[in-house]
Design brief:
29% of the residues lie in helices and 29% in strands. It has 140 residues and is an alpha/beta fold. It has a five-stranded mixed β-barrel. The longest helix is centred in the N-terminal third of the chain and has 25 residues, at 7-31. The radius of gyration is 24 Å and the shape is elongated.
């Protein structure tokens, strides 16, 4: 009686394994594919293309509003490269302590209804946290 080989079973299992790993990698990369733009670049793109974006800019000191419950903020984000270019940003969530007018921020979210709805708000660390200033403060 001839011995049956199980090589086809292993080949099929290996192909299924590679297909599964490839699919997981593709979906993971496509979900994390986010544009990193300035305000002017975001305004130049069609809104339907900005379903996921990170914008960098400076918080305007004018028209900054916070809801009465303290969560979230609505502000104008100024472009760092093109003065006078701005975009309304609305964020609902806990606002970082370092958020203030003039602070550099990164917001992540999507364009909708002529504004930007952020799901993440990050502020750039102020200069008081930089190494040079820490060493000067310890000398005083």
């Amino acid at each position: 009686m001839a011995k049956k080989t199980s090589l086809p079973v292993y080949v099929v299992a290996f192909c299924l394994f590679l297909g599964g790993v490839g699919y997981m990698a593709w979906t993971g990369f496509s979900e994390n594919n986010v544009y990193f733009l300035t305000v002017s670049e975001a305004l130049d793109m069609p809104g339907q293309e900005l379903k996921a974006a990170r914008l960098f800019g400076t918080v305007s000191g004018e028209d900054l509003t916070r809801p009465s419950d303290g969560l979230g903020v609505r502000f104008r984000l100024l472009d760092a490269t093109k003065p006078g270019t701005e975009l309304w940003v609305e964020y609902t969530g806990v606002v970082p302590d370092t958020f203030k007018p003039g602070a550099e921020v990164i917001v992540e979210g999507a364009m909708a209804d002529g504004g930007f709805f952020a799901k993440t708000l990050m502020t750039k660390c102020p200069s008081k946290y930089q190494k040079e200033n820490r060493t000067e403060a310890t000398r005083v």
